[in-house]
Amino acid sequence: MEIDKKVLQVLNITKKFGDGCPVCRENKEILIKNYCPHCQTIYACRNISFDLYEGEILGVVGESGSGKSTFVQCLYFDQKATNGEAYLSNYKGGRTNALEVSNQEKRYIKDYIMGMVYQNPFLGLKMNFSAISNVAEKLIAGGSRNVGNIKEISNNLLDIVNIENFRRNDNPSDFSGGMQQRLQIAKALSNNPPILFLDEVTTGLDLSVQANVLDLIKKIQRDLKISMVIVSHDLGVIKMLADRTLVMLNGEIIESGLTDQILEDPQHAYTQQLVHSLL
Amino acid sequence: MINNYNFGFLDEGSKREIRRSTLKAVAIPGYQVPFASREMPIARGWGTGGLQLTLSLINKNDVFKAIDQGTDESVNAVNIKNLVNTTTGVANTTDTNAATIIQSRHRIPEEPMEKGQVLVLQVPMPEPLRFVEPKEEKTKKLHANKDYSGAWLVLFEKIIKFGRMTGGAAHPVMVNDRYIMSPSPIPKYDNAKLNNSQALILLGAGREKKIYALPPYTKVESLAFEDYPFEVEDTSKKKCRLCGVKGVFFDEIENEKTGEICYQCNDTSSCLKRLNKKESA
After folding, report:
1. Is residue A166 part of a domain?
2. Quick one: which H or E segment has residue B203?
């Protein structure tokens, strides 16, 4: 596998809720977790930087409230990052900061370059439209106006994620949680995006369905060579899927490296605790 | 004419506000301009939007015609005509060619409208994206970004569920290659008449407080897919039971006793005109 081509370069993404004060700007030690007691500012994530290479799976692990989802949502433009830069090799040759382009350009990036699978399927799916229409939505947004083609592509994707033929005209509100997640994956894949974000995809699913979804993700990565960022608080998921892993705590990356390395030889006290709890 | 009301029921300030919104709507074809919808002496949802447009534009030299579902004699049309007549004193007509302002619900007259005429349509639901996105704040952004995948998605969903683009009325149209517009609940049979219309077409939604417009000779395209083109009902083989004309928009009438189905012109004034012509000939 060729892993020297960067598809995404992220520099110093910070998201804070509140203005910050001189105290917490100068002195990080004053923060309680990621909260400043002087000005009530919450630093959801601070100075997140990483590279994502072609065809790799990057795991992001950390406890609840550590800012994992926030920075992924910043990258998918669902939230506006306070500052930071993101360069996509598939967008203007990676020379333009994607976080600062116009709304139209952001929509183009969302439609063609990135896919997202949300923890909550209600965010990613239109519950009062049929499953096949949900997959078709991105294709239509991408300019496809031929029902035959749209149907064919959508059906192929639904085949990949194992949604049976007789359920395809049903609304996702009638689906089980696992099916909704699989449908979201099909939708995210519909325009062949080079990058896919997966935010806690297996959380809340029972173990057999979890295994099913994880197998599916692994298969997609192997067959379609899509780069993925997988956010999870479950080290088991990361262990199974991720090539490299970032460990987050209180909005910051405290450790990063190959997944095996982090699991075998954790350096930071929190990572050690985390790995210990897994074993 | 009642004299203790201002001409055209509305006060001059209100008229000016409505005209200003109308001007903006004409300047940006298909864009929904918000306006301060006034309380009218008819219930909201019964044509208050159209009525306000009519009353703000009408002057003493105008000739007024009102249509409700194709007929000039149904309750809504008669009441609107009476209101306009008593508060302005302008003449009413049923003849499409003689009228200068035509207020209509659900139909565009069969007889082609000409330069200088104004067609006012009453709109219950101006937002073509409402079924996809319930929030006004978001649909405004979708319009601003020309993000119209939702409008096509609604049609796609119909094709998936029913095999064709169902929905006989309010088929969305693309105006001037920029805004997608709901052409009020006119049957999709009438959509073709919107394109390059010689008359000015104004659409008013009183309850939703929106005005939008199609200036004369505006390009209007009905949304369709490449392999599912926009189609209207074929009426070329049906025949009006009264005047015998073919190829217009018909009402279907079923005889409950015999189960027989016959057709009758939906546009009663054009039907009447043809009957009178026959009689005099």
Report:
1. no
2. strand B200-205
Give the pLDDT confidence of A16-40 residue by residue, as tens digits.
888 878 877 777 777 778 888 888 8
Tokens of A220: 């997609």
Residue ranges and CATH numbers for the domains of chain B are: 12-128+171-221 (3.40.50.11310), 233-281 (no CATH)
The closest of B231, B184, B230 to A145, measured between CA atoms, is B230
- Residue in B closest to A129 by C-alpha: B157
Q: Is B262 among the residues known to form the active site? A: no
Distance CA B131, CA B143 (A): 14
Determine contact, residues B119/B64, Cβ cutoff 8 Å. Answer: no
Residue in B215, B206, B178 with CA at minimum distance from that of residue B25: B215
Q: In whole angstroms, give the CA distance from residue B17 to residue A98.
A: 42
From the candidates B49, B70, B206, B265, give the one annotated as an active-site residue. B265
A26 token code pair: 């100068």
Q: How many CB pairs under 8 A join A and B?
A: 46
Which ipTM score applies to this complex? Answer: 0.84
Chain A residues touching B135 at Cβ < 8 A: none
**Which residue, among A107, A138, A145, would best test binding to B if mutated, counting the most B CBs under 10 Å from its CB?**
A145
Range of the domain at A89: 6-113+193-278
Q: What CA–CA distance (Å, rounded) separates A99 from A86?
A: 6
- pLDDT value for A1: 44
Please state, rounded to an integer, the average pLDDT across all residues of chain B: 92
In whole angstroms, give the CA distance from residue A192 to residue A139.
10
Record the pTM: 0.88
Using 50, 70 and 90 to split pLDDT, how confident is the model at B200? very high
CATH of the domain at A263: 3.40.50.300
Number of domains chain A is built from: 1
Model confidence over A51-63: pLDDT tens digits?
Answer: 999 889 999 998 8
A109 assigned to some structural domain: yes
